[in-house]
Amino acid sequence: MLELSNVEVSYGGSTVVRGVTLTIEGTGTSAIVGRNGMGKSTLLKSVIGMMPVRSGNIIFDGNDITKEPSYRRVRAGMAYVPQGRMIFPSLTVEENISTGLETGRYKSIPDFVYEFFPVLAEMRSRKGGLLSGGQQQQLAIARALVSKPKLLILDEPTEGIQPSITKEIARTLGRLGRELGIAILFSEQVLSFALNLSETLHVIDRGRIVRTAKCHDVDVEDVKSFLTI
Ligand SMILES: Nc1ncnc2c1ncn2[C@@H]1O[C@H](COP(=O)(O)OP(=O)(O)OP(=O)(O)O)[C@@H](O)[C@H]1O
């Protein structure tokens, strides 16, 4: 579904993603793990089109989208949940989710969104800024779902969220993948969350993918050595 070949991304003269090549299958869940500042967010931003690539190619669903603007990537079936969630604090839950309807896949919020996130149904009239971190994360995922994505991209979904809630989010994301057939690609620093949710693990270190493994036979100690300072 998604193929990155030799992707390089720079801020000015400083290259932070260095020759990344990876493939994401049409179903299933893949994690990119790495320490702070290793290039996870920058890599995901280049996939959704918020950062231009300096060289390399991105193929999505058989089409070269390397030069396509973000809105076309969303139309083609990608959705993105940014780090820090970026919900609109002064809009209600329902209004926040409705901003995702602009792609036109659904005319109104489909029922399945509230079925996956019942807490959002209870709070649909509450302002987004009054929600807890975990509820805001669910809101950001719900907003991404109404564009009917084939690939859901999440940047550090556990950041700033209590462990008990991250377990619930992992369960819900797993269900979304299985029941709606959405492929999931996310970045993470919390290895337990990544192993719990994903089938394939990629380790990023100083802008390079240094390990790729199926989660069931990953060498956990080896991966941990890239996550600790
Ligand atoms: N807007 C920017 N301008 C210049 N350098 C940047 C910018 N954003 C990120 N960087 C640098 O690029 C490198 C990779 O950052 P990036 O945010 O992609 O890492 P990350 O692995 O997602 O880390 P984090 O967990 O902190 O988000 C870091 O050295 C960072 O300082």
Automatic annotation (TrEMBL):
InterPro entries: AAA+_ATPase, ABC_transporter-like_ATP-bd, ABC_transptr_urea_ATP-bd_UrtE, BCAA_Transport_ATP-bd_LivF, P-loop_NTPase
Pfam family membership, one: ABC_tran
SMART domains: AAA (SM00382)
SUPFAM superfamilies in alphabetical order: P-loop containing nucleoside triphosphate hydrolases
Every ABC transporter domain range: 2-229
Recorded GO MF terms: ATP binding
Keyword Cytoplasm annotated: no
Domain of life the protein comes from: Bacteria
Keyword terms, alphabetized: Amino-acid transport, ATP-binding, Nucleotide-binding, Transport
Statement: the UniProt record of this protein carries the keyword Nucleotide-binding: yes
Family membership: Belongs to the ABC transporter superfamily.
NCBIfam families for this protein: urea_trans_UrtE
Protein name: Urea ABC transporter ATP-binding subunit UrtE
